[in-house]
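Hey,
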Amino acid sequence: MIDENLKKADTTPHASALIESLRDIGYTLSTALADIIDNSITAGASSVHIFADTLTDAPSVAIIDNGSGMDQAELIEALRLGSKNPRLERPSTDLGRFGLGLKSASFSQCRRLTVLSRRNGVMSGARWDLDEIAKSDRWEISLIKEDNNIPQADLLHEDGTLVLWEKLDRVDGGYRHDVRKRTQNINHALAGAERHLRVVFHRFMERKGKGKLSISINSRILDPIDPFATKHPATQIDPEETLTLAQGVVHIRSFTIPHHKALRQDEWDELGGPEGHLRSQGFYIYRGDRLIIRGGWLGLARQTELTKLCRIRVDIPNTMDSDWKIDVKKASAQLPPAVRERLKNIIERFVQTSKRTYRKRGQKLTDETRVPLWQRILKNGEIVYQPNIDHPALAEFEKRLPEDQRRDFRNCIALVGAGLPVDSLHADMLGQAETVKATNAELDALEQALVSMVPHLLGQGVSKEAVHSMMKTTDMFRNEWERVEPVLAKILEQEGME
């Protein structure tokens, strides 16, 4: 019921103030470009070309797609702030939500936004210029009738849209009068954006046939990055689980990516990205196949070295946007309570797989048939590593020593174990375990170890084939296997003749 005694007052926001505020929502160049590409996908585009002209006095970034395009009325509506009600029902393929993405993403990077669109060959164009808005303080855009002198306009198809960013005051790093530094800053930002796009849209880029998307930057086509390495034979993939809620169905699938020793270095680095594998573990939340959140446990678990191979893919429909509190940038979300409980149970069960992948390597040290150089001992709740004084190579050398020197020898070995730099190893292993390497021994030292170990193993009843396999998987021999294998073959042959 309306109270007739209440007076009304006009609180229409000042155009210049509100638009300037929209610039600071928190976009980066990466998330801004992704937001523009969302519109291209919604428009049915199969290709998106990004062109960055950084060498001129007026640098610009153009994003061109071959989607359905817009007529003038649709273009004007698309440039209206809040052009969509986030509560309205939308097609499942619609990646928008608030009707702000095109404008807020663009304003975050530039002061002049120009959009040209063609449908059936008919062009429509319009422009927001924040400097003009600052003067007029009016919610007005300029309509464009000709595409003359508009960069990259000649690349528009019969159907498609060009989004042009000019006056790049947020991308140039403040180096407006230093072309070299400005170019370096823009190119650095583009390099970061490239990886972001390759991951965020990888499922569209990996598709076959209809719905496949090609993205290029300055005419170079980008390859997708699958954060789960699903095609690698060493990747462990759990069965998909579903959670049906009032607003839709959540699909959940857990992946254990391969240990770094099962991958090439470039493959491992690409999977981890600039943040590294420690920060890349956790949830990967997709909305309509578009990645929203990349890594992190959202407060349900800790990021640890033993769980860094764990990645859980969560797919949600756009009907659940409000439940998940998807933000304007489509770069953050919050877990609904029902989903949080389900994922917590999944995590507790799943992360053990990743931990076992690492622990198996540690447990090998406890297998006495492998005659390890180091022993892993659980003592009073603590894990202790100490040299194995009974290793055949050490034991045989000790026997050759005079009686009065054997105690000194054992003391020296004990000092090596006591001097293990645990704190330094812990710091180095935290987040970069794959960069920690053992020193490669000289061939003479390896040969001496083999001469002691092989007879010992054969004497325990281990077959020659098993000895060969065991030596190949022992760390100190595996790293030098091409040189070690002929020596081992010769020792095995000699043992067979005795």
